[in-house]
Amino acid sequence: xxxxxxxxxxxxxxFFDDFWSPSTTEADSPExxxxxxxxxxxxxxxxxxxxxxxxxxxxxxxxxxxxxxxRLEAETTQETKxxxxxxxxxxxxxxxxYVRSFDxxxxxxxxxxxxxxxxxxxxxxxxxxxxxxPEQRRIDIK
Length: 142
Description:
Elements: H1 12-19, H2 24-27, E1 33-34, E2 38-42, E3 46-52, E4 61-66, E5 69-76, E6 96-103, E7 114-118, E8 121-127
Parallel strand pairs: 1-6
Antiparallel strand pairs: 2-3, 3-8, 4-5, 5-6, 7-8
């Protein structure tokens, strides 16, 4: 049994995942970052943004809103412990900085955005502004 996973040569999902990700040498540097996987759902009255952030603590997540751009940032560091027995054969868990930004546009009520974090999943709810019905008025003919 092999402890090193094999990948198919024509695995297109993996190709596109790895294409934009930092290279192995860059991933070890403190400046390296990567984007969390995100789902965005358009509900009737709000947008729902769900981001996977495995291994991240709630207090290490920073959400900012500036000029209509919502920015998710988090950072996780690798534990540095010396192994007395055995050696690491392969390490696939990522350490570094998560960064993701979204342009909310003008139809979101920015003051009422809510966030929750549970089991490595960040959920944001961005309420939509209620659209006023077009005003109609009668124009008298003179």
